[in-house]
Structure formats: C-alpha cells, structure tokens
Write a structure and sequence with these properties.
By secondary structure, this protein is mainly α. It is built from two helices and no strands.
C-alpha cells in the first residue's frame, strides 16, 4: 500500500501524515515523534507535588490534636 511503512526509517525522520509508524520510529511502547515530546510526566510530577503539599497541610492541621491525645495517654 502506498503511504504505509513496512520498515524502520532513518533516525530522526519525522512521520508524514498517513504513514504508519513502526517500532523503530516510535519505540516499543508507542509515543510521539514530534519535537515537543510528551508533557505527561511534567504534569504528573506537578500533580505529585501538589498532592504531597496538600497532604502535609492536612496532616499539620490535625497534628496538635494527635499530640494532645498522645501526651494524655502517657499521663
């Protein structure tokens, strides 16, 4: 079929629209060939830190109460 690749292209070659990417062009797990790359890991890292900070704020709010209960148990 015209427009479909049956073999890997040279490194650095972009895939034109309508062409099928092979494992050599996209990698074993798939992905993007564009120069910009994927922003998923960037957003995941940001979400991780946001959740971590929110968790720390929630824990800090309950920490005085927990410490009071802990000290009361030892007396």
């Amino acid at each position: 079929m015209r427009g479909w690749r049956t073999h890997a292209s040279p490194p650095g070659r972009r895939i034109a629209s309508g062409e099928k990417a092979t494992t050599g062009e996209w990698g074993a797990r798939g992905g993007s060939v564009s120069a910009g790359g994927s922003k998923g890991p960037k957003y995941q890292r940001a979400m991780f830190w946001i959740v971590l900070v929110l968790w720390a704020i929630a824990i800090a709010g309950f920490l005085p109460r927990q410490l009071m209960n802990l000290v009361a148990d030892f007396n």
